[in-house]
Amino acid sequence: MAPPAAMEETAPTINLLSNINDGNNAASQISRVTVVGSGNWGSVAAKLIASNTLKLASFHDEVRMWVFEETLPTGQKLTEVINQTNENVKYLPGIKLGKNVVADPDLDNAVRDAKMLVFVTPHQFMDGICKRLVGKLKEDVVAISLIKGMEVKMEGPHMISTLISEQLRVNCCVLMGANIANEIAVEKFSEATVGYRENREVAEKWVRLFSTPYFVVTPVQDVEGVELCGTLKNVVALAAGFVDGLEMGNNTKAAIMRIGLREMRAFSKLLFSSVKDSTFFESCGVADLITTCLGGRNRRVAEAFAKNGGKRSFDELEAEMLQGQKLQGVSTAREVYEVLRHRGWLELFPLFATVHEISAGRLPPSAIVEYSEHKPNCSLV
Ligand SMILES: NC(=O)c1ccc[n+]([C@@H]2O[C@H](COP(=O)([O-])OP(=O)(O)OC[C@H]3O[C@@H](n4cnc5c(N)ncnc54)[C@H](O)[C@@H]3O)[C@@H](O)[C@H]2O)c1
């Protein structure tokens, strides 16, 4: 399928798809890439990147992938199996990553020579990972976060890209989009959005690293907007899963998605006045919301939760249904709830608040459509 014409505001300035030699041959300019994380999306990201580093002269062929080491039921180490079979047999079975992907269980070693760091772990591990990396990076390293989620501290919410750029003192972009990893693994066409702060040149380098004919990446100057879209849509996906579990039908699900998108935009803009409305029309916005509410793991586990009348906890269902993969929506719903409570905004965001109340077991799943008495303040939301 041919990629659609990019929108005027966000059009990349270079030909991204036929750039076999990108004209930057100086050895000192060649960037080594390390992917920090090796779950389902981390493995697919490494595969995408590795196909491009072989083609583009400005990147070193080898892609290191830091693996949180695990012992498989066979007794073998996961990294050893990845390096022998070229497959992440636990998190992405059946897909070859590319011979130039090297799994490394040693975090310090994996990042030592990297100039470009791709962070893609479940968000709860990032604080610890950043602490371990302080002082270990090369100068002029740039980073990108593919992580959906945020940290909530006393002083307020902290985006993961901010955590990375503050702790490691690096420029950190974000990449988010309608990207269910297993579909991209088999090279089905999709799009993604790179959010950047000021440095367009760095953003375009990330776009080059990730773009393929089946994965079309568009840069937008709105880190917080892109990252909040990717983070908050998991909360809406839980609501969509409750609706599915209760067999409420498509109209209800569409209504939940619309209300959810409105709350996503309002919450993002209240937190960061710089967030742009146009970001919600990019892949990271409405497209990611749709795919996650139709097919993602948050929706699937929330459906099971509602089918069980809320009697089996999310922790139990996650362990049973996801085999080591992590659910982000439940912790994000709790973190969002903390922000809303702390700032006195609970009644402005009835969908977000209700999703947390249900997943914490304080309301039944059917409450997902029973909050209309708390009408949102339309001037804000
Ligand atoms: N899977 C998708 O379709 C998808 C798509 C887009 C974005 N994302 C986002 O990408 C991020 C990573 O998700 P994923 O799907 O690659 O992971 P995953 O849920 O498939 O796998 C969990 C990963 O966490 C690792 N892990 C477990 N304990 C750890 C620890 N203590 N420290 C560090 N790592 C540990 C595991 O080894 C494994 O690699 C998440 O923020 C997710 O929201 C996922």
TrEMBL record:
- NCBIfam families tied to this protein: glycerol3P_DH
Q: Which residues form the Glycerol-3-phosphate dehydrogenase NAD-dependent N-terminal domain?
A: 33-199
Quote the EC number: 1.1.1.8
Keywords (alphabetical) are: NAD, Oxidoreductase
Q: What is this protein called?
A: Glycerol-3-phosphate dehydrogenase [NAD(+)]
Reactions that this protein is recorded to catalyse? sn-glycerol 3-phosphate + NAD(+) = dihydroxyacetone phosphate + NADH + H(+)
Please give the biological process terms from Gene Ontology that the record holds: carbohydrate metabolic process; glycerol-3-phosphate catabolic process; glycerol-3-phosphate metabolic process
**Which residues does the UniProt record annotate as the domain Glycerol-3-phosphate dehydrogenase NAD-dependent C-terminal?**
222-370
Query: Any idea which positions bind NAD(+)?
Result: G37, S38, G39, N40, W41, G42, F68, F125, A181, R297, K326, Q328
Q: Family membership, please give it.
A: Belongs to the NAD-dependent glycerol-3-phosphate dehydrogenase family.
The UniProt GO MF terms for this protein read: glycerol-3-phosphate dehydrogenase (NAD+) activity; glycerol-3-phosphate dehydrogenase [NAD(P)+] activity; NAD binding; protein homodimerization activity
Cross-referenced InterPro entries: 6-PGluconate_DH-like_C_sf, 6PGD_dom2, G3P_DH_NAD-dep, G3P_DH_NAD-dep_C, G3P_DH_NAD-dep_euk, G3P_DH_NAD-dep_N, NAD(P)-bd_dom_sf
Q: Which residues bind substrate?
A: K148, R297, N298
Task: Give the residue range of the signal peptide.
Answer: none
Cellular component, GO annotation: cytosol
> Active-site positions, per UniProt?
K233 (proton acceptor)
